Amino acid sequence: MKLLAVCLGNICRSPMAEGALRARLDAAGLDWVETDSAGTGGWHAGEAPDRRAIACARGHGVDIGGLRARKLKASDFEYFDWLLCADVQNLIDARRIAPIGLAEKAVLLLDWAGVEPEGEVADPYYGDTSDFERTWTEVDAAAQRIAVRIGNTQERVSWERP
Ligand code: 4NP
To answer: What EC class does the entry list (predicted)?
Structure first.
């Protein structure tokens, strides 16, 4: 199983989601699940996460300081089983570059995790510390649910065309 968290800049929401997923999966003994993150925009490629995102994650015991931003690419749809998008615009932008037949691998993170139907992770970039805390609460709730589900099913590849 390979999971890719996707947002716009890959410096706030998706690296926080990647960190939360990695922490929850490892705590559940699911180290065979691969995690990564990417942005639909490439402006911050090569950069570390936003310092506020790093500080927020660190406050919850998760180190995301070593992550580096990169832009989403079409081949991510080949490699990953699921592309977990923070908001609807990310979902639209991601699906736009999907190879034929693979667009449905891109889903909304909170929806797919079972946290909130059609729920979006709001962009904290122009917000303050409390906005980053809300982001963490949302992505970590999703990460917990996902880890429990994968732990229950032990599914190694969940996305297959019939
Ligand atoms: P993210 O937040 O998509 O959660 O990483 C953003 C980061 C940077 C920008 C927008 C959103 N930006 O416009 O530079």
So the answer is: hydrolase
